[in-house]
Amino acid sequence: MKAYLKQGRIRKRKGLIISLIILIIVGAILYGLANRYLIEHVEVVVTDEIADSNQIAETVGTEPADTAASTSTTAEYDDWNYTSDDIQIQIEQVQTGSGAYQITYYVADVVLKNAEILRTAFANDSFGTNIIENTSSIASSKNAIFAINGDYYGFRSDGVIIRNGTLYRDNPVRDAMALFTDGSMQTYNETEVSSSELLADGAVHTLSFGPILIQDGEIAGDLSHVKIDNNFGNRSIQAANPRTAIGMIEPNHYVFVVVDGRKEGYSRGMTLDELAELMDSLGVTEAYNLDGGGSSTMVFMGRVVNNPQGKNEERGVSDILYVAEGD
After folding, report:
1. Is the pLDDT higher at 160 or at 38?
2. Per-position DSSP letters for 53-111, written without gaps between them
């Protein structure tokens, strides 16, 4: 009997040890996933030397902090258009198809006086991973006239990230896009062009997502098997999905497209091939696919223009591209 009880205690002890080991392993896995995809990691807090909270207070209908010191910009605008001495924006909603095949998308034609007017911003003014804010919130903090979501760089730890002329990350892996001081846009392979070359050539911003849609005036081949990365939780990007894209017609003349999706009877989204064909039809010489899906958002004069996620619900992103009046 004693031997039997002793064996029972040993089995119980072994069971507890095994259970404890399993809990430790599961806990370590869960923490690793949370640390990689949920917990904020701030690497750099960015001091914004460009945006001034008073710059376009008049145009967006808010009161400047110091009226006497604020910059007054004469502009005309409505829900879809904006015109000033430095900026011209025209936004159009387009619907094609019907029923389950209907697609709804938004095209913003943007002409700028100079390249400094097109800017980027990080969520919470911080560079790192898992730092997110809604596109509209980041845009509001920068008094943006117009904004779209960026490349969601914070979801991954690779790519070449230059923003406002500062190199934040230098781990080349994929096709990317750069905006330069002369207002031009270039698509390129990160593994073939160094960050030092980009900066020397006047790169102000780079975005690392892809794929390239239009390069040198031509559709960039078959996009049906494009692979961006292998991050946990990625959706397939080949099917019809919400999309965000940027294209250049000529220096300082851009086209931004946001495609809604995932809402039957309103918009099914676009495939990458369809998006490339659309950008080609708009007359761009370069075009690049940015983060899509639930991230796809267009903001104009403080209003979310499109229908994010097919639910009118924004998803937090790590960065935006935006247009704002200068000093």
Report:
1. 160
2. TTTTHHHHT---SSTTTSPP--EEE-SSEEEESSEEEEEEEEEES-GGG-EEEEEEEEE
